[in-house]
């Protein structure tokens, strides 16, 4: 998931990676839900929707201080999204000291969307060095590192070199990006088997998960299939590239590979964290879907050992990786998280008042809003919810069951709605001349329209304009990758005002999609009454306000807007043994900003 609105710096790199790798019906504003424990105050979210505080545009590089820092313990989080690699440095209180971003290359050809692990690693190194330089932090001050990334699929050979997954044959293109939908038919074939493992991913696999993609490669790129020595989730590959330890995360394997994490429930807990032999693979499933060769060698190609997120990997950063990153060899590296799940770790304890009740966390849902939106909720009991991924044991917070809803296109949908309109170039020019963002300009236009038309509230502007947001299928709760989007109420009006209406209708459609997910989860055993939001779209006040009004829940925004980077950094803090467990680190380093 790419955090929307980030400017990116740097050019494409040409170095080669030669280092071997070791083994919609509109409603009026609602009153807060009566069960809500947090309420917005007049000052909390009463800013104009065009306030700079909420802009969905952020500098690619930020630094909290221009003077040299003297922090003893600094934790580094790395997040690889759809369009950029980002690095952030945090102090012992979870405050951002500095961050940097570097772009990554992407190839799009129809349903096929691909990237390069070599390019991504170079971008990571650039971002880490830039963040350290701007925050005036040297490598010795960094006590722990964590990686987060999109759930994209990486293919490498026995030497760690890229193996193509592209029709083009280009060896650089060794990553099938998370949003790639080439494997729809393979997903349908897998779902027709009705394997018991499918009940742990909402009853069916999505083409965005790894088994369908693996099956596609085997059926279409036989030479590549025979060459691949390791198939890895991108975040696992990053930690492997840094440490040489290919232990996989319970997050990636459980959420995207059908690994049954609860196989470890009886003989492991988070505080006894160690590499665990991968006993959660269902060999019958892999045989049945035609991928039985992945079972060979104790599942060596897909993961022989797994660990809780934050578990210290190997001997820390290797000397080679340390030199590339500008860090110190041996610095602890925590087992990784998928980027959305890192956002959950970075925000889920961001409450105005800390709660000691371990059950209280089960009333919250985190919205990680970027190119797509992921909806994270945890429970003590496993809850099977049709059309919603999970329950996943220990996939985000150890020893809790995770429910994961999602919308495949949210930021991407807003980009599409804006960029495909005839007024878009004109609006872009106006935004550039005013040194503001398109979203701020659209929010300004909507406020002006509300006043001119004497509407009681902004939402009423879309009385005759409606959007069904399934432009990239419906991930939850319909679970139909073939679903299509709809725009109702189009006219020949080419004005910026009409574009603003479409933009607002799309925002509302996304919010109604989230409401559908929340209500569906609550109807199946959850008790969600509070939302927390992070990611690029959470910086857009209109986006957040429409969600709060439409869903009828308070929405808490964290103190630190870079929640995914914070979540990744928390993994490093746990790996460095600064905290006994992930939950303790979350309570110490998460902090609330505002309640809407």
From TrEMBL:
Start and end residues of each Carbohydrate kinase FGGY C-terminal domain: 366-576
Protein name: FGGY carbohydrate kinase domain-containing protein
GO terms assigned for molecular function: D-ribulokinase activity
Biased composition (Basic residues): 23-38
Keyword line: Kinase, Transferase
GO BP terms, alphabetized: pentose metabolic process
Record family assignment: Belongs to the FGGY kinase family.
Comp. bias (Basic and acidic residues): 1-16
Source taxon at top rank: Eukaryota
InterPro entries for this protein: ATPase_NBD (IPR043129), FGGY_C (IPR018485), FGGY_N (IPR018484), FGGY_RbtK-like (IPR006003)
One family name in Pfam for this protein: FGGY_C
Keyword Transferase in record: yes
Chain positions covered by the region annotation Disordered: 1-44
Coiled-coil ranges from the UniProt annotation: none
An annotated GO cellular component: cytoplasm
Residue stretches making up the Carbohydrate kinase FGGY N-terminal domain: 75-346
């Amino acid at each position: 998931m790419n955090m929307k609105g980030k400017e990116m710096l740097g050019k494409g790199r040409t170095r080669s990676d030669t280092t071997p790798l070791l083994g919609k019906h509109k409603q009026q504003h609602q009153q807060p839900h009566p069960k809500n424990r947090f309420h917005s105050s007049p000052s909390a979210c009463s800013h104009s929707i065009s306030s700079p505080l909420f802009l969905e545009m952020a500098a690619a590089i930020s630094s909290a201080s221009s003077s040299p820092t003297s922090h003893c313990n600094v934790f580094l989080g790395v997040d690889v999204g759809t369009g950029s690699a980002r690095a952030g440095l945090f102090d012992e209180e979870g405050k951002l000291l500095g961050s940097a971003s570097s772009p990554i290359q992407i190839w799009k050809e129809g349903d096929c969307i691909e990237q390069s692990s070599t390019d991504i690693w170079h971008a990571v190194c650039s971002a880490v060095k830039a963040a350290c330089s701007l925050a005036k932090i040297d490598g010795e001050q960094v006590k722990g590192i964590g990686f987060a990334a999109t759930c994209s699929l990486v293919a490498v050979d026995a030497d760690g070199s890229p193996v193509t997954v592209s029709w083009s044959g280009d060896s650089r293109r060794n990553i099938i990006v998370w949003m790639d939908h080439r494997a729809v038919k393979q997903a349908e074939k897998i779902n027709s088997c009705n394997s018991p493992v499918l009940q742990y991913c909402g009853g069916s696999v999505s083409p965005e998960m790894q088994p369908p993609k693996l099956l596609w490669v085997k059926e279409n790129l036989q030479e590549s299939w025979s060459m691949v020595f390791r198939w890895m989730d991108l975040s696992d590959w990053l930690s492997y590239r840094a440490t040489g330890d290919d232990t996989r995360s319970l997050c990636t394997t459980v959420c995207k590979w059908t690994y049954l994490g609860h196989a470890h429930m009886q003989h492991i807990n988070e505080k006894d964290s160690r590499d665990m032999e991968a006993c959660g693979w269902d060999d019958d499933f892999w045989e049945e879907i035609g991928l039985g060769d992945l079972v060979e060698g104790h599942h060596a190609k897909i993961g022989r050992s797994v660990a809780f997120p934050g578990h210290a990997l190997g001997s820390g950063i290797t000397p080679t990786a340390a030199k590339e990153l500008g860090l110190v060899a041996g610095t602890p590296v925590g087992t990784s998280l998928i980027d959305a799940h890192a956002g959950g770790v970075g925000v889920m304890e961001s409450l105005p008042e800390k709660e000691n009740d371990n059950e209280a966390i089960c009333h919250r849902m985190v919205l990680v809003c970027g190119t797509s939106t992921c909806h994270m909720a945890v429970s003590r009991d496993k809850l099977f919810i049709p059309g919603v991924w999970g329950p996943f044991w220990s996939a985000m917070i150890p020893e809790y069951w995770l429910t994961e809803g999602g919308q495949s296109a949210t930021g991407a949908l807003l980009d599409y709605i804006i960029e495909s309109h005839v007024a878009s170039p004109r609006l872009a020019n106006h935004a550039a001349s005013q040194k503001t963002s398109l979203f701020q300009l659209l929010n300004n236009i909507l406020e002006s329209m509300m006043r001119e038309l004497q509407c009681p509230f902004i939402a009423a502007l879309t009385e005759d304009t409606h959007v069904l947001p399934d432009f990239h299928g419906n991930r939850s709760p319909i679970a139909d990758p073939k679903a299509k989007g709809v725009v109702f109420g189009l006219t020949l009006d080419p004005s910026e005002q009409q574009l603003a209406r479409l933009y607002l209708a799309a925002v509302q459609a996304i919010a109604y999609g989230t409401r559908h997910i929340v209500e569906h989860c609550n109807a199946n055993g959850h008790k969600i009454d509070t939302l927390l939001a992070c990611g690029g779209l959470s910086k857009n006040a209109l986006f957040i306000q429409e969600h709060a009004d439409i869903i009828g829940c308070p929405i808490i925004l964290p103190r630190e807007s870079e929640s995914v980077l914070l979540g990744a950094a928390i993994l490093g803090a746990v790996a460095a043994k600064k905290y006994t467990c992930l939950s303790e680190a979350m309570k110490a380093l998460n902090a609330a900003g505002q309640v809407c």
